[in-house]
Amino acid sequence: MKQLLEEAKLLQEQIVADRRYLHQIPEVGMDLPESAAYIEKRLAEMGIESHRCGVMEESVRQKYIKMGFPDMRASTGVVATIGSGSPCIMLRADFDALPMEEINDLPFCSKRNASHMCGHDTHAAMLLGAAKLLKDHESELKGTVKLMFQPGEEMGYGSKTMIDDGLLENPKVDAAMAIHIFSTTPVGQVTYCSGVASSSLDTFAIHIQGKGGHSSTPDLCVDPIMIANQIYTALNMLMTREVSPQAVATLSGGVMRSGTAVNIIPDTADLQVGLRTYNVEARKHVLERLPEIVDAYAKAWHGEYEITMFNCPCTFTDETTTKELLESVAEMVGEKNIQAMPPMAGTEDFSYVAEQVPSTFLVLGAGGPEQYPHHNPRMVLDESVFYQGAAIHANCAIEWLNKHSK
Ligand SMILES: [Zn+2]
Ligand SMILES: [Zn+2]
């Protein structure tokens, strides 16, 4: 299979070009028309048919608007298949950017008020590279390779919009893998997780409706600031009193907003808290108890409330699939460059796929510990590893199909 690595090397220039193009047109969220069109165009140039995949349900769309996100009318996922029949392995690349400016001095920097500071542009480019390799070897494929280009990963829901639109059917997906590039992992190193790969993230936006009035007459008002304050304190107590100290679970408030002047008791208050954990039991408990606590404190002080919730589960990797795929990774990067890693504290919406299909999640190093981390405006990636990413994807798919064809 060393041959495949050589073939991938020849694609390096094209992969870099694809990456740089996507890097300069960063789009945020679920609705990424320009990036999706570019991916479709590149697939078509390789003779690969693709189709759009992703449903933006009205309730989900409204939830995001309520949380202050721009209106996202569509989810522009792109799906393509190479080969035919069963079994089927799916390769995932996300391609959404972040709502932040890039502060780098590179000729292909983003000039928009958005940027690829999580490296998802490289994921799409590497999967396009893999697409070319797989298309060149299509006649040898013992089944189907499905390519998943997903928007909205940073919203924690893009993969779900595609699953809801039939992503995992026709043909049915039997295994899946995703690669995330990392600026702080040494160049060319691949890391993997056994079991949990990323934490869950549940976001609660709590809107409290009080009754505003003059600060001299609190008895005639319902003070939403006080209710928000008590809810916040109670939620922190919930974490220390009802969640096992064995469970790694954090609840943090990121938004607390209310009021305009000292002599006005405001009408409303907003509180947003996020729960992250690797522990399914702890998560279940807090998901049940949080609404009860909000309800009790709001009612105790005659307030009303509304909770808007966003949920993204933990990514669980499948042990057998991971082990099998790592053998194919080793053929591309060498055994010595593969290392186990602890679960990521961050969240990855590939979790929705991994919930339904045996999956693995790999990290590909493109930097080192001295580099700026992801989501930093100065994050840069070493482009020299891109062909390896393409080769890993392609080799994993080919070898997995070889092993599992009937
Ligand atoms: Zn990110
Ligand atoms: Zn990311």
Structure description:
- The structure is a single chain.
- With 406 residues, this protein is α/β, with parallel strands linked by helices.
- The chain folds into two domains: 2-197 and 315-404, Zn peptidases (Aminopeptidase); 200-312, Alpha-Beta Plaits.
- The protein is 35% helix and 25% strand.
- The chain has helices at 2-10, 12-23, 33-45, 58-66, 120-136, 158-163, 224-241, 280-300, 319-333, 351-354, 386-404; strands spanning 50-53, 77-83, 88-94, 144-150, 175-186, 190-192, 196-198, 200-209, 213-214, 249-258, 264-265, 268-277, 304-312, 315-316, 338-340, 359-367.
- An eight-stranded mixed beta sheet has the order 1-2-4-3-5-16-6-15. Strands 10-12-8-13 form a four-stranded antiparallel beta sheet, with helices on one face.
- The longest helix is centred in the last third of the chain and has 21 residues, at 280-300.
- It is elongated, with a radius of gyration of 23 Å.
- The two termini are 22 Å apart.
- The mean pLDDT is 96.
- Bound molecules: zinc ion (2 copies).
- One zinc ion binds at residues 118, 154, 374-375.
How do the helices and strands line up, and which of them pair or pack?
Layout: H1 2-10, H2 12-23, H3 33-45, E1 50-53, H4 58-66, E2 77-83, E3 88-94, H5 120-136, E4 144-150, H6 158-163, E5 175-186, E6 190-192, E7 196-198, E8 200-209, E9 213-214, H7 224-241, E10 249-258, E11 264-265, E12 268-277, H8 280-300, E13 304-312, E14 315-316, H9 319-333, E15 338-340, H10 351-354, E16 359-367, H11 386-404
Parallel strand pairs: 3-4, 3-5, 5-16, 6-15
Antiparallel strand pairs: 1-2, 2-4, 6-16, 7-14, 8-12, 8-13, 9-11, 10-12
Helix pairs in contact: 1-11, 2-5, 5-11, 7-8, 9-11
One zinc ion is lined by residues 118, 120, 153, 180.
